[in-house]
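Entry 14: structure prediction run for Transporter. Input pasted below.
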Amino acid sequence: MTDRILLALLPIVLIIAMGQLMRRRRFLEERFWPQAERLSYYVLLPCLFFNGLATADLGDIPVTRLALTLISATCIVSALVVLARPAFRVDGPAFTSVFQGSVRFNNYVGVTLTTGLFGAAGLPLAAISNAALVPTVNILAILVFSRFGMAGLSLRGIAVQLVTNPLLVASFAGIAFQASGLHIPAGIEPALRALGSASLPLGLLCVGAALDFSTAKQWVGPVLRSSVVKFALLPVATLLSATAFGLTGDALTTALLFQTLPTASSAYILARQLGGDAPLMAGIIATQTILALAALPLALLMLLP
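Run finished. Output tokens:
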């Protein structure tokens, strides 16, 4: 199992490093990176979420228990992080990055790990986890940005962000499509799948390009605190929630895996769009991706009798 986890994370580390190298060597013009971020956020990631949720085969998965476990643990930990904000000793925009680093997750790694562990049966488990967590973390993140981000969103602004957020719209549309029993036309589904697949390398290249090691010393405290929440507090909260809702077996393993995943590249893109501390967010993503090499196997040890 450890080998599978390492193999899933290693390509992500390498792609982030490639993005940093490309930026340093000026392989592409500087104006490329903001446009790439926009493409990923508004087109590629929504295609990934919609297609994954709309085409999932749910089978005999304990959908309600799995969703309740993930949502309750995420909400509880999110509330604790907001309450503990003074202890983080960072300004508002930086706190939004700490918050995202505490609760967001890398969809791509989650899908790779669950399919690697459970084969074809892992795909619907991953899809349900995404369906529960993507709307939850995006709604919570937008609320935090509205309070602490530089954009300073009003109540009307919050509502607009929620109903127009491409990740939320794609997630709810995918869930609705799945519930309707409809099927994506044969000629369209491969296009959606291809566009969604492109979001991983492009998003990670943007993360690597955004890394600024001249400010590395400023990252230490925020990165450490968000990583403790992500890799210790959130998995423990998930295990307690799973016990409360009676979640067991492969679904429990999947829930624990998803809650111990490193922060996704979409967190950086959201930070850029909504007035967060994007360089700090990039540092958290890169650092957590490396830390996850050890954190994921350790989290699974909690399942041993």
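Notes: The mean pLDDT is 85. Will compare against the previous run tomorrow.
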